[in-house]
Amino acid sequence: MIRELGALTRRELLRLGRNPQAIITSLLLPLLYVLLFGQGFNGFTKGVPPNELALLVNGSPTYFSYFAAGMVGFVAVTATLFIGANVIFDKLFGILKRVSSTPATSFTIFGSRLLAGVIQPIGLAFFVLGLAIGIGHLGLSGLTVTAAVGVVGAGEIVLAIVILSVMFASLFLAIGFSIEQPQSYFAVVNAINLPVLLTSAALYPWGGMPHWLQTIAAYNPVTLAVEVIRLNLFAGAGPFYPYAAWYYLLGLLAWAAAMILLATVLAGRALAPKR
Amino acid sequence: MQDGDRGSIRAEHLSKTYNGSVHAVKSVDFEVRPGEVYGFLGPNGAGKTTTVGMLTAGLQATSGSAFVDGLNVAREPESVKRRIGVVFQESTADNDLTGRETLELAAALYSVPRAEVRRRVEFLLEQMQIGDAADRLAKTYSGGMRRRLELAFGIVHSPRILFLDEPTLGLDPQGRAGFWRYVLQLRKEHGMTIFVTTHYLEEADGMCERIAIIDHGTIAASGTPSELKDRLGGDIVTVRPVAGAAPAQEMLTHIAGVSAVTEQDGAYRLKCANGETLVPEVVAACVRAGIGLQAVSVKRPSLDEVFLEFTGREFREDEGMSATDRAVLLGRVRNQMGGRR
Fold it and tell me: What ipTM was predicted for this assembly?
């Protein structure tokens, strides 16, 4: 099984590497958000007293810093969108039929796509993190790390990004295995993607959200991931984050486990002999 | 599994119904012997691909059983997949991989021993004559090269049984001839059992040792091409009277040597042991009866005639290749195979 998994993962990576346009265009969205949206909205918080700002953005030094950490989670989600679409195209072009005619199991086929599929979102998430910190040195608003990030903290950030990418990659793979047409796929994915992001604390300041939205956002997996990042980069344990990072990570892990289970079942159903 | 089952295929009352009402395959029974080239001949929609799907663990049978290499396909699908190779009707070559990468992937998926992979892949690339293009992406391959790459994918693990579902669909005569040359060569070298579906009559006639004629999901007849033709009772003399001529069926039936007469589209088809010697008799009888003739022709029975005989309708010409294509294909393959039938 390991050998099949490796071979199929290699196929996915070769395909990704042979499509540099997709990699380049995937950089465009975070670039625009960080360089335009983040810079523009950061101006609204100018002049807000520091103690009020801290209440608004959970102890982050600026709105941009708060937003940039949220963007890390945001791109980890949006970059996984195409993973499920690739499954549909592989169905249409007979590739999936070809592979499922071999002894490769449905779990191996799903697992290889998951393994190869999370590389790009994870890479993009770190690209955004680096970009947001880097532009601060170019005279623009940048992400300012105000807490002491130790090895454990850095590990927690990496873990949050990886688990979030795995969770959404599994979700979109589950949809991809269940749907036959690309149009239907994108319709379903859009119906999920935007509500998930807009009910999270990725972009909104916590302090400015209505209470009911705060309640929803608290359980949103994107929120759980970006709060691990913010906690470690800006605040540390304290008044803004009464729970330790592992608390959020456990919640995120539960989401990921549920999505992996869902995708495994749906992939198994899609790749089983047709009834 | 008994030794006698190795390399064999058996279907017992195999049926497939889609959505509870579309009966694609209706209780078919057949057995393919080890090392045999067995053809499933029928027009589009006859149930050929559905049958292959059930035999290769891609489709669940609605009822009945399928045994491949001695294994029950429904109970042991993974084991069956390890022992067979499949070339699908539609192109499944991966555009984003090179020929070499495609075969390396296939070798890993079929658990070809690591030490053998390189040698096996190189051998197949050369054997299929895609060695020069081995490091090019498959999307740059011609139709024939893609088909050969797909064939190589299906045999990288040296399966005992190879399923070919309309393998030459969309190929030009040269491509078809080349493809069949590789298949028959493989069979000669490895003793593989080959199950092929086709709607090309000449392919079935020229390449298969036994044929099952499938139409509307049922097997109408099966046997060697020669047996099927012999069942027609000899040659076919077709007599086409001029327009407005008097009915001639009764008169033609009484000619000595004619075993049966049927009328179709204004022409009479006479079955007889020897068509060439019967023609003068037929012409004389028509002259005596005052029936003007437009044309008289003699045909050795072909699978077209066999299909007509057993299904009651003509094998639609548009399902197959043109007469020219057929002649070119057969000529090329027979030359390449040293005259082998």
Answer: 0.84
